[in-house]
Amino acid sequence: LMQIICYYLFVKVEAAQIEINPLANRPDRNQSPGQVISVDAKLNFDDNAQFGQKDIFAMDVHEDTDPKEIEIHKYNLNYIAMEGNIGCLVNGAVWPWPPYMDIIKLNDEIPVNFLDEGGNAKEKQVLKTLQILTSDPNVKAILVNIFGEIVNFTTIADGIVNATKTIGLKVPLVVRLKGTNVDAAKKILEESGLMIESVHELEEAAKKTVRVLS
């Protein structure tokens, strides 16, 4: 019965996770089966269901959440604060992030954040991500690593150039792009006249970013 109830709840509220652990059986004095009690439970909800589950999302509490995470979430981006000096902007959480983290650590530095711009970045998103990154006083350099066929890299390059001008970027910026229209994108960066380092490989990008900190 408990499994049926959980499944019904899972579907009804469009949950991403419903976990009841542990369950306890409390027998009564008459030796009857007693009660099954949920001692603890964890529920997570699909962000994409927010429009249909307004009552649930209205109960969300942000007291313990980094303000940068709240702000960046408004633009459908993912941000996780960490400890370090290199601000990171990537696309995708599964493939780019583990080697990204490892390569930076192998060069004796630590990322200050994880910031995923997703697979379809717009110029406005690029501006917001750089504003969020530079609002952190711990960020001493920024490393951008974006690749794929979905993203139009001229849009990314235009966004980086315009954002750099808009916010008056004061920290070094190293950019590694690979994908659609990447040659045109690199040309935009090179002809911008700004202090933007464009590199070809991720390892080279990480080493160059660490080097500008020393």
TrEMBL record:
This is AAEL004078-PA. GO terms for biological process: succinyl-CoA metabolic process; tricarboxylic acid cycle. One of its GO terms (molecular function) is nucleotide binding. It comes from Aedes aegypti. It comes from the Eukaryota. Keywords: Nucleotide-binding. InterPro entries: SUCC_ACL_C, Succinyl-CoA_synth-like. The keyword Cell membrane does not apply. GO terms for cellular component: mitochondrion; succinate-CoA ligase complex. Gene3D superfamilies: ATP-grasp fold, B domain, Succinyl-CoA synthetase domains. Residues 101-210 form the ATP-citrate synthase/succinyl-CoA ligase C-terminal domain.
